[in-house]
Task: inverse folding
């Protein structure tokens, strides 16, 4: 029952390392193949850049994809597709993204989906999480903590809310070094990745989220710079009420597609598939450990 073919839905090139780089290493050590589908370019739309940056847009795009390929070769990810959707636009293209995921699942024979958690880190992360929920009827879906601002502090690779179904991955020294090296491949994002943990990761079966509402009370990670009074390319200044209205509207319209997977719907008690998946990576099994 443990998945031998895993598909990671990465909202941006670098999220595959940020959220589940160590988990992927351990999955591969257990004999799995880990594919990754990049759902956006990771770069804002050309018109969102400063006017002097726009002529170099194509070069920026190539650089980010080249960084992703180098990081993938280090960790052992198998890139299966790069979307042309700009960063911060995924929520407007979820139907097209769902078709891409559907094709990728079929192409790689995926037996499980991994996706960043619904936690207010970035609007594309939250849109990707809603997208992954569509596939719960077909295969197990697991969400991985990336980063959030719950409680008014930056929390890397820890869930904003824990309810007893979370599993922690405590990294070994070689794994920490490898994740640090993989993150360093993304030179273009160096300033944005300083807070990411290389000591632990955390995952759980995808919960039943209310995508029409912010994922936790208080200021979200993506709202920390909303005080800036002018448009800046590196700041997502869109109002959260609009972001979650769009994601929630799409998720509600898609509700008919979201049924329990293998008898364990998101938010339910752990079922056999989840227990076997966790057990396959238990630290009691040495190098196959995903430690609880």
Result:
């Amino acid at each position: 029952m443990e998945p031998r073919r895993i598909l990671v839905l990465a909202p941006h090139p670098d999220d595959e390392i940020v959220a589940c780089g160590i988990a992927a290493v351990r999955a591969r050590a257990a004999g799995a193949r880990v594919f990754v589908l990049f759902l956006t370019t990771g770069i804002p739309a050309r018109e969102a850049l400063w006017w002097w940056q726009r002529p170099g847009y194509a070069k920026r795009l190539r650089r980010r994809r080249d960084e992703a390929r180098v990081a993938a070769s280090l960790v052992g990810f198998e890139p299966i597709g790069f979307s042309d959707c700009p960063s911060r636009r995924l929520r407007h293209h979820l139907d097209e993204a769902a078709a891409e995921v559907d094709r990728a699942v079929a192409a790689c024979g995926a037996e499980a989906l991994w996706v960043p958690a619904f936690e207010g880190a970035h609007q594309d992360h939250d849109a990707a999480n809603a997208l992954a929920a569509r596939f719960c009827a077909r295969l197990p879906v697991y969400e991985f903590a990336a980063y959030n601002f719950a409680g008014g502090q930056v929390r890397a690779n820890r869930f904003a809310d824990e309810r007893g179904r979370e599993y922690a991955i405590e990294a070994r020294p070689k794994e920490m070094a490898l994740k640090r090296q993989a993150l360093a491949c993304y030179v273009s994002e160096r300033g944005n990745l300083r807070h990411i943990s290389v000591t632990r990761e955390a995952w759980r079966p995808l919960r039943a989220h209310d995508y029409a509402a912010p994922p936790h009370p208080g200021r979200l990670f993506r709202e920390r710079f909303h005080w800036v009074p002018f448009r800046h390319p590196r700041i997502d200044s869109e109002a959260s009420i609009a972001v979650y209205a769009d994601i929630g509207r799409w998720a509600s319209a898609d509700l008919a597609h979201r049924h329990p997977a293998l008898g364990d719907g998101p938010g339910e008690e752990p079922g056999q598939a989840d227990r076997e998946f966790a057990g396959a990576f238990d630290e009691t099994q040495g190098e196959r450990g995903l430690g609880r």
The first helix runs from residue 15 to 29. Confidence is low (pLDDT under 50) at residues 258-270, 283-292.
